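Hey, can you fold this one?
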Amino acid sequence: MKITFYGHACLGIQIEDVNILVDPFITGNEKASHINIDEIKADYILLTHAHQDHILDVEAIAKRTDAVIVSNFEIASHYGNKGFQFHPMNHGGSWDFEFGTVKYVNAIHTSSFPDGSYGGQPGGFVIESEHKNIYIAGDTALTMDMKLIPLRTKLDLAILPIGSNFTMDVDDAIIASDFVQCDKVLGYHFDTFGYIEINHEEAKRKFFDKNKDLMLLEIGESIEL
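Sure. Predicted structure:
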């Protein structure tokens, strides 16, 4: 499994020959100006919620790639009504895709489209592939529901927001890693704009002091599990 950070909360996940894109917000992020969305591969696009900083480039990429858009019922149907391929889900539900099993799990946040229309309830994703399991928290506060995840799935990586103001901060992300029983964390949703700027060295130190590993990737950088 290869995971590429495209800035903010956007991730590319390659599982064997399948390419998954999560929450594409690239062209609106000046820090990601070196990323060309026309070069990004996507067989599936997973959306945690409907805010613009998570869906801005969905239509451009899905139109080019014919990707299947996977999200809650309201978001998936929104794109289905526009003629895109889609797969609707809802909280607690799972589906076996060609690359593995996806479960849509709870997140504490809000969800509306840029025009203010209803975007369903926000969520996160647990992806179980043949060899590695990951949790993509989406935009969320710390929640006790995270304790449910390790009852079903042993995680190899937790991808957690750490920018505070709109989501958890670093200290809550450390607690979240305890809740999901995963000490290997990829941080995201930080530094994109002033509200969510963080001190990288301090964040890494706080995780290190708890015997945990926090990875903060440069935009365009990848890791392999």
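The helical segments are 52-55, 58-65, 73-80, 149-152, 170-179, 200-209. Let me know if you want another pass with a different chain boundary.
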